[in-house]
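User: Just a sanity check before I run the rest of the batch. Below are the structure tokens for the first item. I only need the designed sequence back.
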């Protein structure tokens, strides 16, 4: 790392200037970023009274040279960039040389630091810039006391202690998700709020957002030329009522970016109900020169040189991750015979005679799980074994038991098929042998007359028979087996509320979703084994078959291990 030096005026004028110390959380963001830039592997944060009375950030990073300490607190002095060229491809969080100076302008700051080569640490305060020796291992401690002591008006705008502390916690969460390899801790009024060991992303997400998130998420790992998207995208079953779990990072920096949020929302559009928000932790990596971080003083916004390309990439990468057909989504365990075998093998001490293992394997095979037919490893969703209350299909696969919500599954398949047909022109229609005369309201008749074109585009041939009757002559072929009257009524209700003057794609898909929902097998319906197996095979072949159009899951897996656990086997 370079020594700290004042930036030339020309460069200063190029840097987005402005307020960065809005509240304690923004102070914390600056301090954690500095620690990470210094190569810290652990960062400990201590807050008192919402961070207003005290905020202390200690790291084990590279430290600051004694001679540089006064410069660290002065405006426009940085060790991170030296030229405009550096600014244009900056890879550190900091680059303005302004963070500490703007904090020191509104609070009492003490800096204690020691580099690896120094015999001891040095301390400096902004009120007394002379250096005094101090005790510290290699690293840096920044203490910020009495935030806004000199600007009481600002202090009045702060919220309650606990609210400010919660904002600080969120800042730490954002940084900690970006750097699972770094250990973090956070205390507020001496109570431990967070304690995070260095880990991998999965573990870190579980520690911060709970076990449920990764359990219902798809791993994203897509690379296209210079662009890379990695992370975890929660399946719609884990959707949220707010945007509180949307973490998007660009080159490791947490950003609130409209373009990226839009690309993500579009990718989820097909599988998520409008009122729900997706949850994700995503990292976009690209050449630093292809993205401008010098847009906003708090660096929370970025500008892409090729925003269209980035949007398309993120949209496609995410769509692909979410749409992964079932076949690839289930990771098959290695083809050992049973859960028993594996558990037994794990609990056996290495020295135990091999013969014992062999004997046990033989026993387990015969006594428990060796079925007459070959194990159903060939199909991810396995083979139907029965149906529950005419609502759920039970199937057996290599891993264990599969439970399918037959209505949700059928709805999803129907929707994808309707969409496919619509994309290639007007869907095939089926003329009714005897036109159906359907009793409706006057309003429905009016809607049908106004929307004849939209109805035709969807495969419905309708005309008015009387002020309260519609005559239906043809319906989409895929739906001809169902209750066509109910289907038409649902469609008219939807069209009355949101007329479709032009059936644009998004709107068309909404209408198709209505059709699929009403066209799919509803309520109880007994299926034969071949019918159930046909449904399973179709699910495997259908994109996004894992969720119905409302984002509910269509199937669930219970592994043998989970079932064994229910009966406390192997305990
Ligand atoms: N925790 C730390 N460990 C080591 N060096 C630090 C630490 N905090 C600050 N510094 C040094 O002090 C300098 C000034 O920090 P400051 O946050 O004011 O500016 P910056 O990080 O360079 O840019 P920015 O204003 O964009 O954050 C840094 O360039 C760095 O050299
Ligand atoms: Mg900084």
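Assistant: Here's the designed sequence for the first item:
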């Amino acid at each position: 790392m370079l020594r700290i030096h004042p930036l030339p005026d020309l460069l200063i004028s190029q840097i987005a200037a402005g307020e960065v110390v809005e509240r304690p959380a923004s102070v914390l963001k600056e301090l954690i970023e500095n620690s990470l830039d210094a190569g810290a592997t652990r960062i400990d944060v201590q807050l008192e009274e919402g961070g207003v009375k005290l905020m202390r950030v200690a790291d084990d990073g590279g430290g600051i040279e004694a001679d540089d300490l006064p410069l660290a607190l002065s405006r426009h002095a940085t060790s991170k960039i030296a030229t405009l060229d550096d600014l244009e491809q900056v890879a550190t969080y900091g680059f303005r040389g302004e963070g500490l100076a703007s904090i020191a302008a509104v609070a009492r700051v003490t800096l204690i630091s020691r580099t690896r080569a120094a015999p001891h640490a040095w301390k400096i305060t902004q009120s007394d810039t002379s250096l005094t020796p101090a005790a510290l291992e290699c690293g840096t401690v920044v203490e910020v006391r009495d935030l806004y002591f000199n600007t009481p008006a600002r202090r009045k705008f702060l919220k309650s202690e606990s609210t400010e502390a919660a904002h600080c916690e969120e800042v730490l969460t954002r940084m900690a998700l970006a750097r699972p390899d770094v250990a973090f801790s956070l205390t507020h009024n001496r109570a431990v709020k967070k304690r995070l060991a260095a880990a991998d992303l999965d573990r870190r997400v579980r520690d911060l957002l709970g076990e449920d998130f990764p359990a219902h998420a798809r791993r994203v790992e897509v690379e296209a030329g210079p662009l890379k998207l990695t992370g975890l995208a929660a399946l719609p079953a884990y959707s949220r009522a707010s945007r509180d779990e949307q973490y998007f990072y660009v080159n490791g920096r947490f950003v609130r970016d409209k373009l990226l949020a839009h690309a993500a929302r579009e990718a989820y559009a097909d599988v998520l109900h409008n009122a729900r928000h997706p949850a994700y932790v995503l990292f976009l990596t690209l050449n630093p020169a292809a993205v401008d971080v010098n847009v906003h003083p708090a660096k929370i916004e970025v500008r892409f040189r090729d925003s269209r390309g980035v949007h398309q990439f993120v949209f496609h990468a995410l769509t692909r991750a979410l749409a992964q057909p079932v076949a690839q989504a289930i990771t098959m365990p290695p083809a050992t015979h049973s859960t028993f075998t594996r558990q037994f093998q794990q609990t056996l001490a290495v020295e135990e005679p091999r013969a014992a293992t062999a004997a046990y394997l033989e026993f387990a095979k015969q006594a428990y799980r060796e079925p007459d037919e070959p194990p159903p490893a060939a199909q991810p969703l396995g083979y139907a074994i029965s149906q529950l209350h005419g609502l759920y299909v039970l199937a057996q696969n290599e891993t264990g038991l599969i439970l399918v919500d037959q209505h949700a599954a059928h709805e999803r398949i129907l929707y994808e098929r309707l969409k496919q047909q619509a994309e290639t022109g007007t869907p095939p229609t089926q003329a009714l042998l005897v036109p159906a005369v359907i009793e409706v309201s006057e309003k429905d008749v009016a809607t049908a007359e106004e929307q004849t074109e939209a109805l035709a585009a969807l495969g419905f041939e309708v005309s008015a028979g009387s002020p309260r009757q519609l005559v239906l002559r043809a319906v989409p072929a895929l739906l001809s087996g169902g209750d066509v009257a109910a289907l038409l009524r649902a469609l008219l209700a939807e069209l009355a509320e949101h007329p479709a003057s032009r059936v644009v794609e998004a709107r068309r898909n909404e209408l198709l979703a209505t059709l699929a929902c009403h066209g799919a097998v509803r309520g109880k319906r007994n299926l034969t084994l071949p019918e159930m197996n046909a449904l399973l095979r179709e699910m495997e072949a259908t994109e996004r078959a894992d969720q119905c159009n409302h984002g509910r899951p269509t199937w669930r897996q219970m592994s043998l291990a989970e079932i064994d656990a229910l009966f406390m086997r192997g305990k």
